[in-house]
Amino acid sequence: MAEERLTQEQRHQVLDIIMTELKDKKHRSFQQLFMKVNKTLGYEPNDHKAPGYRATDNALQILRRRGFIRWFRFGTYRLWELVPTEN
């Protein structure tokens, strides 16, 4: 069974969701982020097979490579945060 693909608009929406969550809440785990993405895209929040799971992972890697976000260890968790900007 092939995994459902997201449209370009939905992929942009995933990026927006992640950036908004990190601006509002400061630190978020991958689980918190992908559950929010799944819920917003209309899937079961904790469904690891929904396209929101892979889209969240891909979006986090894109944002990290572009320098917008970074991760840090908190106990056994990896938390994501925005990189501070100098304005």
Give the SSE layout.
Elements: H1 8-25, E1 27-29, H2 30-41, H3 51-65, E2 69-74, E3 77-82
Antiparallel strand pairs: 1-3, 2-3
Helix content: 40-55%
Mass-distribution shape: globular
What's the number of extended β-strand segments? 3
Proportion of beta-strand residues: 15-25%
Kindly report the average pLDDT value: 92
User: What is the string of SSEs from the N terminus onward?
Assistant: HEHHEE
Query: What is the straight-line distance between the termini?
Result: 48 Å
Q: Give the uncertain stretches in residue-range form.
A: none
- Can you list the strand order of the major beta sheet? 1-3-2
Pairing-aware structural class of the strands and helices? alpha+beta
For the sheet with most strands, the description reads:
3 strands, antiparallel
Radius of gyration equals 13 Å
List the total number of helices. 3
Describe this structure in words.
With 87 residues, the protein is of the alpha+beta class. Helices cover 52% and strands 17% of the residues. The chain has 3 helices and 3 strands. It has helices at residues 8-25, 30-41, 51-65, and strands at residues 27-29, 69-74, 77-82. A 3-stranded antiparallel β-sheet has the order 1-3-2. α1 packs across α2 (30-41), α1 (8-25) crosses α3 (51-65) and α2 crosses α3.
Summarize the structure.
The protein has 87 residues and is α+β, with helices and mostly antiparallel strands. The chain has helices at residues 8-25, 30-41, 51-65; strands spanning 27-29, 69-74, 77-82. It is 52% helix and 17% strand.
